[in-house]
Amino acid sequence: MTTTVYVPADASARSVGADAVAAALAARPGVTVIRNGSRGMMWLEPLVEVVTPQGRIAYGPVTVDDLPQLLAAGMLGGGTHALRHGVVESLPYYARQERLTFARVGLIDPTSVADYEAKGGGVGLRNALAMAPAEIVAAVLESGLRGRGGAAFPTGIKWKTVLDTPSSQKYVVCNADEGDSGTFSDRMLMEGDPFTLVEGMTIAGLAVGATQGYIYLRSEYPDAAAVLRRAIAVARDAGWLGDDILGSGRRFELELRMGAGSYVCGEETALLESLEGKRGQVRYRPPVPAKQGLFGRPTALNNVVTLASVTTVLAKGAAFYRDFGAGRSRGTLAFQLAGNLARGGLVERAFGVTLRELLYDYGGGSASGRPLRAVQVGGPLGAYIPERDFDLPLDYEAFAAKGAIVGHGGIVAFDDTVDMAQMARYAFEFCAIESCGKCTPCRIGATRGVEVLDRLLAREQPARQLAVLHDLCDTMEHASLCAMGGMTPYPVRSALQHFPGDFGLEQAAPGPSRRP
Amino acid sequence: MSPAMSGAVQAAIAAHRDRPGALLPMLHDILAALGHVPRACVPALADALNLSRAEVLGVMSFYHDFREHPPGRHVVKLCRAEACKSMGADALAERTRARLGIDFGQTRSDGAATLEPVYCLGNCACAPALTIDGRLHGRVTPTRLDALLDELDGDSR
User: Fold this and answer.
1) Predicted local distance difference test score (pLDDT) of residue B1
2) In A, which residues are within 8 Å of B132 by CB distance?
3) Cα separation of A37 and A363, whole Å?
4) Do B64 and A262 touch (CB under 8 A)?
5) Which residue in A40, B33, B43, B98 has the most C-beta neighbors within 10 A?
6) A425 vs A433, A457, A488, A491, A496, CA distance in Å?
7) A405 phi, psi to nearest 5 deg
8) Which residues contact A67 (CB under 8 A, 6 or more apart)?
């Protein structure tokens, strides 16, 4: 009798020793190791799951050094041990999620077609193959799905524009350039359930009339690249891609392209320039990519999670998806709890959940044990949110009303030792490093921002520096070509507004004392 | 160009010349083969793609990955972004600088190591993170950092 054990091959799990654990377990007679994606409970990685009659019993975090003791405790039969957490689905962190897009991630062997289909994969594509393009677009519009990459533009409207723009060649491009600090949901999905992306892109191709798709993946994700390469090859062999998708006579091809270390290439027009083999500089708009995108052709350009979410819409219906959420934020978002949190990881929930719930009920508060002071939501261009606003519901409109963004759903927590003036300075510094250089407000403004902040922090005519700083932020916000320059003022202004004491401007609001 | 260099460039051109937007795939192949993208390969790429040399050089220099000079025997990339900062990445950076005796963007004079910044490795829930020769490490404490750098020392001939 053999025992089946799951050990994630997710990059995060590997970064804390999963490969060695998998190898040690695989070396034991009677043990079959499956390398799955991550369940998203990153503080428990490497999370080993043992298949037993009672279900998949989780142990974690498991290191090679723990294994002798775990095996002696009967881990392979689900035995009791301090690192045993029980069945994954019964753990509150996992059980209280609404997993639609990430339903299979961590559960299956990522490149097994049989696993994929056994867990509901492919239903959306089969439904789409029986629909007219306009019907697919209508379903996506009806679902209320908005771009999960950050800009939150309605996906159905984008697709309708591509469908309605005549051209002999159209493209589907997946933006897999997940460069925001605090975000890793695209990576987890690509590594843990790549066929969902393949299926979503194929559905997009059917919807808009495109026969060629490109995934533009950042080079910082070599594990995702390896899984995607394999998944595309397996999908082609299985008839999911190629000239005759699942015997339908319809055609869709997919190619993986790598970025080369450039944050701004996550901006959609810069990404297209890069795919065309050029410098990743932002394009003037209009025309929008939906009308003139890759190589000047109509292009449906969406983020990884957006495309993956479409499979659920087509499999279960627009109404099913739309019924999750709040206000005009429909469906679910894969929130990423990162930074200084005791229980960092991925939490897929419908919109409307509060920051406080995510940070404390799921995240367990800070990892350091000190009070949380601020969180940055939506990546390096997102605003810093102080503790008093943690009851804000995660909803695009509610955040916009506060001058903040939900973005890609990344949440980075900081404890009370953070120096917010230094974080504001870093925002400018990062913009200066990564600016594509095409527009002056971003290219020059970011460098000037660092200088002005340095003078402010050195107490050189602070009132004057502050006036220049606000002026600079206005110019960058209103005159930059894209969000890189246009939104760098968000973290800067929010840090200034909520934490003036860190800038030496006035007495900080009463709060926990800060470490010197 | 050395024979190795020339071989890598010709192989990259042959592999991708009929592909739309071929320049980045070519540069990636050259980088993988040589560990850097020497300026000497610009004319051949420009000819193959019917681009000006300035255009090819412009693309090479735009992307952080396409380093023009060979790196040290080991490449250490430390994440400098927010999630890692919230877990002590700045102190880790100071420690790495001191241990290696070089700043970011530099290669040690003995060729043992190159230190580079990176802005997010997607390991933000296991911060702070770094890579050594492409291998990702998470939850890097000062003690773990020292152990990892010790391994490099032992290997630096």
Assistant:
1) 82
2) none
3) 20
4) yes
5) A40
6) 12, 10, 10, 9, 11
7) -130, 155
8) A21, A24, A25
Interchain CB contact of B64 with A (< 8 Å): yes
Positions of chain A with pLDDT under 70: 507-516
Going by DSSP bridges, is the β-strand pair B130-132/B135-137 parallel, antiparallel, or unpaired?
A: antiparallel
Q: A3-6 and A48-52: which strand pairing?
A: antiparallel
In A245-332, which residue ranges form alpha helices assigned H by DSSP?
A: 268-275, 304-316, 318-322
Predicted structure pTM score: 0.97
Angle at A183 between CA A441 and CA A95, to 5 degrees: 150
Q: Is B47 on the interface with A (CB under 8 A)?
A: no
| pLDDT per position as a tens digit, A398-420 | 999 999 999 999 999 999 999 99
Q: Is A174 strand, coil or helix?
A: strand
Bond preceding residue B128 cis, omega within 30 of 0: yes
- Residuewise pLDDT in 10s, chain B (157 residues): 899 999 999 999 999 999 999 999 999 999 999 999 999 999 999 999 999 999 999 999 999 999 999 999 999 999 999 999 999 999 999 999 999 999 999 999 999 999 999 999 999 999 999 999 999 999 999 999 999 999 987 665 4
Q: Considering only CB atoms, which chain B residues are within 8 Å of A263?
A: 119
Q: What does DSSP assign to residue A358?
A: I
Chain CA centroid to CA B145, Å = 19
Tens digits of per-residue pLDDT, A196-215?
Answer: 999 999 999 999 999 999 99
Distance of CA A3 to the CA centre of its chain: 34
Give CA–CA dist B5/B81, Å, rounded: 35
| Dihedral angle of Cα B53, B54, B59, B62, to the nearest 10 degrees | 140
A14 part of contact set with chain B, CB < 8 Å: yes
Give me the amino acid identity at B26.
M
Q: How far is CA B117 from the centre of its chain?
A: 9
Query: What is the Cα–Cα distance from A104 to B116, expressed in whole angstroms?
Result: 36
Q: How many CA atoms lie within 13 A of B106 on its CB side?
A: 11
* Closest to B104 measured CA to CA, from B82, B88, B80: B80
From start to end of A144-191, where are the E strands? 171-176
Q: Is A344 exposed, middle or buried (0-12, 13-18, 19+ CB in 10 A)?
A: buried
Q: Which residue, A326, A335, A337, A393, is CA-closest to A360?
A: A337
Residue A506 pLDDT: 77
CB contact under 8 A, B126 and A15: yes
Residues 6+ apart with CB under 8 A from A30: A1, A2, A3
Does the complex come out with an ipTM higher than 0.95? yes
Between chains, do A43 and B125 touch, taking CB under 8 Å as contact?
A: yes
What is the predicted pLDDT for the residue at A507?
A: 53
Pick left, alpha or beta for residue A303 (phi over 0 → left; psi -120 to 50 → alpha; otherwise beta): beta
